[in-house]
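step 3/5: co-fold with guanosine-5'-diphosphate
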Amino acid sequence: MQRATLGKVENRASTRNCTVAISSQGQQCHGFPAADTCVDSLENKLVFVGNPGSGKTTAIESLSDVAPASIRMPAGGGQDAAGFTLDYTTARLDDGRALHVYGVPGEKHLDFVWSMICDGATGVLVLVNARDPQRLAFTTSMLDEFSRLAPGASFTVGVTGSDRAPGFTLNGFRNDLLAEGFRLPVVKVDAREPAQVRFLAKILLSGRSAGRPWPRA
Ligand SMILES: Nc1nc2c(ncn2[C@@H]2O[C@H](COP(=O)(O)OP(=O)(O)O)[C@@H](O)[C@H]2O)c(=O)[nH]1
Ligand SMILES: [Mg+2]
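step 4/5: write tokens
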């Protein structure tokens, strides 16, 4: 396994060194930040996945106790020639629990990133913009994929941008997901609101209220 220091780290408040370990097949990754920025173990590891514009970076900033890192991964050629961004932060909930939170792209051609990040995830938040016409297909696809990659995780769907989607109803979307066989919390969230994002993090950590997506056979 090669250990690489990423060249470009975008960080809105400060710049710090981040490292990522990636196997030659791109299959493994263990935490980006330098050791001094980590809190506790990787016990409470949350993964936020969503398409561009779904609010991943904003949600992670809202949750952060420290300056979050947005790490621009270099272009690898082919479809992902433009590269992609990974977000990472740590946060501590008011009950003292420490979180490690990763934001990963939802695009299918970047699926190699999912298995790198999902190892040991406690919870997966699928973020979807209410205005995305493909929101149902995207969400069911993410729930299918991530329930396979993170079989021990709890799942929640967070719908952003509902303030700008007049025709959107949460009940309608929840029912659409139920009709596809997915019974799990589906919650509106404004990623700019820390209290709302923290609430979602708590749902994900709660064995009782967070859901398993009941993937289709
Ligand atoms: N109106 C509105 N804007 C939101 C909401 N959630 C996030 N945003 C905005 O959506 C934009 C895209 O969010 P960003 O975090 O960059 O998405 P990412 O590409 O998934 O990282 C930003 O300008 C956010 O401030 C929401 O619930 N309502
Ligand atoms: Mg982003």
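step 5/5: annotate
The first strand starts at residue 2 and ends at 5.
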